[in-house]
Amino acid sequence: MAGDLLLFLPEAACLLMALALFGLSLPRVQDQRRVHSWTMGLSLVMVAAGLAGLFQEGSLFFEAYRVDLFSQFFKLLLAVALFLVLSICRQLTGVEERYQPEFFLFLTTCTLGMMLMVSAVELMTLYVALELSSFSLYILVPLRSGDNIDVEAGVKYLFIGITASCVMLFGMSYIFGAVHSTYLAKIAATLPLWIHQPGAVIGLLLTLSGLLFKLAAFPFHFWAPDVYQGAANQVTTYIATASKAAAVALLIRLTALSAGTSLYLLDVLMALCVASMTLGNLAAMVQSDLKRMLAYSSVAHAGYVLMGVLTMTRLGYSSAMFYSLAYMVMNFAAFMVVVKVASGGQDLKISDLAGLHRRAPLLALTLMLALFSLAGIPPTVGFTGKFLVFAAAMQDGHFWLVLVGMINATLSLYYYLMVIKAAYLAEPAGPREALAVSGPTRALNYALIAAMVYLGLFPRQVLELAEQAVRNIF
Amino acid sequence: MNAGFPYLSAILLAPALGMLVILLLPHGNQRAVRWVSLVSAVICLALSVYLYAAYDRAAAGLQFVERASWVPSLGIFYYLAVDGINLPMVLLTSIVFFTGVWTMWDLQHRVKEFFALMLLMVVGVYGVFLSLDLFFLFVWYDVSLFPMYPLIAIWGSTRKEYGALKLTLYLLAGSALVLPGILYVYFQSGLFTFDLVQIAQAGLPVEAQYLGFFLFLFGFGVLAGLWPFHTWSPVGHVAAPTAVSMIHAGVLMKLGAYGVLRVGMFLCPQGLGDWSPLFALLATVGIVYGAFVGLAQTDLKYVIGYSSVSHMGLVSLGLATMSQGGLSGAVFQMFAHGIMTALFFSSVGHIYDRTHTKLIPELGGMAKVMPRASFFFILAALAGIGVPCLASFWAELLVFIAGYRAYPVLGVCAVLGLVVSALFMLRVVQKTFYGVKNERFAQAGDMTMVMIVPRALLAGTILLFGLLPRLALDLINTGVAPLVGMFK
Q: How far is it, in rounded angstroms, from Cα A300 to Cα A280?
């Protein structure tokens, strides 16, 4: 029993944190500072639990729940993502004050859902976990004070999300019909025999579409710009970091089912990959709102991740894992700057960044590095991530895909440079006072800069961990 | 493996540490920023000169090797070494870096950021020249490119934002061909190593070399100013501040030619054979085109920009001949042109600082106003024309002989191109430095003795290597010889 608890440690910590936050949300009057400090403390415990549980292995709940390095890697990633997001929630200016404990609570339950998701190896478990995280987000997205755009974003996210879930469930029914089991292990054993049947491929594709929705890959990306813009900045940060990582994890688990035997599936994924990259980058070029731009850029990045995933090889999967870590770090860095600069919780136009290098040199530096990293410029982690997924695609013989990917990376540089130009060159129309950057924020900035460069130049440890992790999923 | 002092890592680390120190210095401490930059430049220069002297020319081959496994599962190595090809480039970088820092001594605007970015760029340049691992070569290649954007866009002049954006996008579009090329070669070799030497020794399948060389030629060729992908270069040079123009035209463009040579020709010697007529044709078009377009320019920096296109065309032509003389000439030309262009931009930088114009019709009679600056400009112009006793003479001679042997028609065209470029250089010199004096600039000061030092160093290098070409050629020949053997 003690052993089982150890297996369940990160989730247990997350559950406890959710319960504690529930308790904190009960009193009528709250001390915001105290709530935030508690949340941060609990979240740190969760990261510790994630670290402690990293090398656990075993299975729970009648084999429906597998704990292996792959799942634990992502759980740690999720715990860190939650911690990072919470760390920029000290002044929750975009959210009404009385909802703030609930805000933290739903972030936690969402993370719990994702943690369960990455360990789920049975379709129903997976679905329930996915819904837990989705429903938390349905509540989080409209939680924003001020203008009325939030309602639109919330409704949009809810409807598209529920539709995606339905489609996914429908797809699962096909898979169940084909192989008479909901266990991934059994499906993986039998599916290759059935993979040339249209039903099985359709089932798999429909199931994947639920995840592609989470990843905001083409053609399931329509929600992203509106929701990124409409949700509170901190929520957007969370959606853009943690939620993506969990989606990649599941995508890897599910595509591994076909074990690369279906050329049809490969073709579809390749088409989606190219369309996501190209469309995301082209659309991002014309945005004037920073969050909308980052939303389209996330569509493009979904394409890059797909490039690693669609190879369905060990290098491909481990590179996709590395990429999701890279994406989390650099995207978080970019959003952190958004949150800090939009100190009133408002949306941020790219032109609002004018003069940032003088108002807050450190934030400007972090932003520049994050954007160069997103554009895939070495020696940042974004480059190493792209290099790895491109290497995986090349290994599988997709020369053209790599070329298209590189052309896209160059295209993307254009709009990232536009933001850097705004931050470093443009002069603000009126005088703007300097932004106060507190000590912890300063430390966070240094840590992010160091992480982006360190992981870019020294990918060895993480890569080896990822390689070890994907060994188990075949 | 050499167990001794890691000289090459030290060269790489000196500017990197310098950059870190500068970033950590408090704002406003401009003096310290300058001194830190200068110290790291001096360290690099001293180490490079030492390496240049200590390199064993009789033994040849790769020396001062430092090699360690970086990511074993992918076969990435930290692999630094020098041979007869990259050692002159390292020396060139050090000279231009040192003189560039000195030239920018009086910069007042956002000093800390400027030197930090400049040092970062220099780290990238050294990295490319020293690395023999394809992964790192590419990493450093991009590191050397992206600081150009802020450097030009913030401190530049004349359509700086346009120039910066155009340059960055062009160059990174070039690297968009290089990366697939590297990955393609990596998997085609079947060795799962990014070690350049190992792949070259094992040899690639002939079909792979064909596509591989194409990717490397056009990928790196963009940076080498290969026609018709050169249009970023004059625009970028004109927009960039003095030291950045110096490093950029002097060193960075060489990275492109070096990439074609070190990666493209080294890994795909047979692929080169199929592409070399096209390569030579584009190079010659560049030589002639650069010369003619230069003839029509009225902006001093544009003149140098187009003469760079023309001179870099000579480098490409030398490479395309696939002969000992052509390759040696090309490498020597890279070195000589780098020093010469640095001197050009350094002199123009001074003229522009004092007169706030670089338009030829507005200037005139500058030889009387600022004799020292004029002397250096004219010396650079003479070197560009290929006057004997100056370094470029030998380089251009070698390339022309080899070019004429390999491609008689193109060789003649190239020589004619040089005649035109001599014409326009002399015209520029005549109009700018002699002729009617513009009284408006009569009070513009000449270079101070302190600011002469970097220019004198550059001028001295041109003379030294012009009088003693064997100083460079003996070394370069040892590096080129094994490569020429591979073409057979």
A: 4
Structure tokens at A95: 């959210």
Range of the domain at B441: 7-487
Which of B53, B93, B46, B99 minimizes the C-alpha distance to B458?
B99
**Assigned domain for B2 exists:** no
- Tell me the DSSP string of A405-455: HHHHHHHHHHHHHHHHHHHHTPPPSS--PPPP--HHHHHHHHHHHHHHHHH
- C-beta neighbour count of A219 within 10 angstroms: 12
How many distinct structural domains can be found in chain B?
1
Alpha carbon separation from B77 to B68, B135, B358 (Å, rounded): 6, 8, 46
The answer to whether the Cβ–Cβ distance between A410 and B73 falls below 8 Å is no
Smallest Cβ–Cβ distance between A467 and the set B73, B113, B186 belongs to B73
- Report CA torsion sign: A214, A219, A222, A228: positive
> Within chain B, which residues score under 50 in pLDDT?
1-2
Cβ atoms of B330 and B315 within 8 Å: the answer is yes
Interchain CB distance below 8 Å, A395 and B187: yes
Q: How far is CA A56 from CA A62, A66, A70, A129, A470, in A?
A: 17, 10, 10, 20, 15
CB B41 within 8 A of CB B98: yes
Q: Residue A109's pLDDT is what?
A: 92
Q: What are phi and psi of A196, to 5 degrees?
A: -85, 0
Give domain status of residue B1, yes or no.
no
- How are beta strands B63-71 and B76-82 bridged, if at all? antiparallel
Q: Å from A377 to nearest chain B CA?
A: 7
Residue A424 to residue B154, Cβ atoms within 8 A? yes
Q: CA–CA separation, B321 vs B339, rounded Å?
A: 24
Cα–Cα dist A144/B470, whole Å? 74
Q: Is B103 left (phi over 0), alpha (psi -120 to 50) or beta?
A: alpha
Beta carbons of B69 and B77 less than 8 angstroms apart: yes
Give the ipTM of the model, two decimals please: 0.84
Dist. CA B100–CA B105, nearest whole Å:
9
- In A, minimum Cα distance to B144 occurs at A378
A97: tokens are: 């004050």
Domain-embedded: residue B470: yes
The ranges of chain A with pLDDT < 50 are none
Please judge whether B153 and A425 are an interchain contact, meaning their C-beta atoms are less than 8 angstroms apart. Answer: yes
CB contact under 8 A, B172 and A413: yes
Identify the pLDDT of residue B1.
43
CA distance B69 to chain A (A): 10
Please tell me which residue of chain A has the smallest CA distance to B149: A417
Residues 6+ apart with CB under 8 A from B395: B314, B329, B330, B332, B333, B335, B336, B337
Cα within 13 Å of Cα(A228), Cβ side? 29
8 Å CB contact of B180 and A406: yes
Residue type at B186?
Answer: Y
Contact A392, A319 (CB under 8 A): yes
Q: Is residue B45 part of a domain?
A: yes
Q: Characterize the bridge pairing of strands A58-60 and A65-67.
A: antiparallel
Element (H, E) at B82: strand B76-82
Task: Report the gap between the CA of A427 and the closest CA in chain B (Å).
Answer: 12
Q: How far is B143 from chain A (nearest CA, A)?
A: 6
Residue A441, exposed/middle/buried by CB under 10 A (0-12, 13-18, 19+)?
A: buried
Q: Look at A378 and B142 and tell me if their CB atoms are within 8 Å.
A: yes
List the domain boundaries for chain A.
2-473
